[in-house]
Amino acid sequence: MTDFSDMVKGYGRFREQSWIEQRERWEELGRGQSPKVMVIACSDSRVDPMQIFDVAPGEIFAVRNVANLVPPYETSKGYHGVSAAIEFAVTQLEVPEVVVLGHGSCGGCAAALSGGFANAEHGAGGFISDWVGLLDEARDKVKAEFGDSPEAKTEMEHEAVRVSLKNLMTFPFVAERVEAGSLKLRGAYFAIADGVLHVMDDDGTFKPAA
């Protein structure tokens, strides 16, 4: 498994090869960025958006967190990291597209579905439990329809994408741009085991990308 010393060695290879090959690109990026897409993805080590979509540096503005979740818009003071990233991408970078990327075998969605993490009052897992609590309503919906069947886990992962897209529309600056036609919200799902990307249709269903 890769540790930090391996990563530093990897940087050496990058500096001697990839950086030189794309030197003009890196110099351009040093003057600023203008990505056309924001991707909200999971922190999971297996689902790097740049690798999945095979894009060059500077093409994606990404925010990653447990279960690729977007919280509802709120004005209370606090450290709203995901909301700040959305605000920056939409109002400052003016990206024309925001993609919520879910994935298979998501531990955060599994925790939301099963309640597998301890509450903060009883030990580790409090931050995670509070965060995946954003999926409580979705969990109840999935449980009611799929019970404990194998399909429930995948449907929960799909629901996480739908919930995030719904919550994105609670941000006034997002809703305004969507309604004006200058911003498009998209959902996608990467099945790790078979490497297939699924794209969400307007009706909320997921189909393999062409």
SSE blueprint:
Layout: H1 4-16, H2 18-21, H3 23-29, E1 37-42, H4 49-53, E2 60-65, H5 81-92, E3 97-103, H6 107-114, H7 126-132, H8 136-146, H9 151-168, H10 172-180, E4 184-191, E5 196-200, E6 206-208
Parallel strand pairs: 1-2, 1-3, 3-4
Antiparallel strand pairs: 4-5, 5-6
List keywords for this structure.
single chain; 210 residues; 6-stranded mixed sheet; 6 strands; globular
Question: How does this model look, in words?
Answer:
By secondary structure, this protein is α/β, with parallel strands linked by helices. The chain has ten helices and six strands. The protein has helices at 4-16, 18-21, 23-29, 49-53, 81-92, 107-114, 126-132, 136-146, 151-168, 172-180; strands at residues 37-42, 60-65, 97-103, 184-191, 196-200, 206-208. It has a six-stranded mixed beta sheet. The chain is globular, with a radius of gyration of 18 Å. The two termini are 34 Å apart.
According to DSSP, the number of beta strands is 6
Structural class: alpha/beta
Taken in chain order, the helices and strands follow as HHHEHEHEHHHHHEEE
Global shape: globular
Question: Kindly, what is the distance between the CA atoms of the first and last residues, rounded to a whole number of angstroms?
Answer: 34 Å
The helix content is 40-55%
The profile of the biggest β sheet is: 6 strands, mixed
**Tally of alpha and pi helices:** 10
Spans where pLDDT lies below 50 across 5 or more residues:
none
Which band does the percent of strand residues land in?
A: 15-25%
Mean pLDDT: 94
**Sheet with most strands: strand arrangement:** 2-1-3-4-5-6
Radius of gyration: 18 Å
